[in-house]
Prior knowledge:
mainly alpha, 15 helices, 5 strands
Amino acid sequence: AILVICFFLPAIFKKPIYLYRLTIGFSETKTLWWLVLSSYLVILFDTFILKNIILFSIKRFFAKYNFIFKFPVFLMVIIVFVLILGRNFFSSWQLFEIVPFDIKNLDSIKNLNYFPNFFEKILLEFNTYIFSITPIVLFLTIYLWLKCLMKRSVKFSFHIITMTSFMLIYEIASIKAGVLNSIRYNIILYPIICFLAGIALYDLVQYFLGNKQVLIKLKIYTGISFAIIVISAATLFLTKPYYFSYTNFLLPKDKIIVGAWGYGGYEAAEYLNSLPGASNMTIWSDYYGVCEFFKGKCITNQKIDLEKYRIDYYVITRRGGIRYGMGSDDSHNSVRAGKYYSSEDSIWRLDINDRPQNYIKIFKADNFAEQVE
């Protein structure tokens, strides 16, 4: 890990303090590094001095009371089912309507006059993760978790429990740091759940193949691997051209877990460019992506000289509404775009991945008078 950091940030060789800030000096890590270091020292002492007396004692305890260590697996199963069932079948559950997925800072939830308990915070953290995972991966992992809970002894139980625990620890640490993880941060957990799904797939194949010959098993493993690649490629193709929208079909269409991330700007500009006299028009957009492709005048500043620029069209997005908080329509020289965020009278609209909450819309300016007091 240190080599990777040094490779991508060579400034560390000039200012070693950067290495400290990115490792044991990073945020909440300051309060945890001593615990990790102490654990390493105990393991080394036990290995070289006590000849693994402590580690073997832990192993025996684990074998005798393994149900205690399965609690992280049990909790993850509860989290997954509460999220899937709750978001699909209980419309009165307003947690995710009150707390936006992109609020980022958990402390700012207080400004919404809502105070989620600890379990609700865990659900908020896992929300973007569960509803962005490829369903086949999620279903395989659920199968593995359930098998781990129902059977006293399961192959690879150590890997299952430790990796599941890491997923929980990561999200709990995020809560401790006051961060509400978006997909951009939860993506670090993708390899873990894919590894668990791989164990589940191996277990299923072993069960159905039984005592077949090694060569037959190899052919079947190869075929399954090829099928997974094809299915994954097809899934990726179906998301075209919005590859970073992630959202799987387990989330209802009227919900979202990711913003547009700049999607729709090209399509909006193409529509505007097709209008008569586009090169002589002036538009205002709440994000710059449209301006890259529009051939006329494109403005993104909220404060402009309204007597100098006559805005012909407004391009607005969900993210723009959050960013600008368009409520100051009466301020001097402020773009009068606020009313369009609650209007349905757009002349053009694009819903990213057919999710109405994740939109980009174009409105024709009512008249020039609306822009000045």
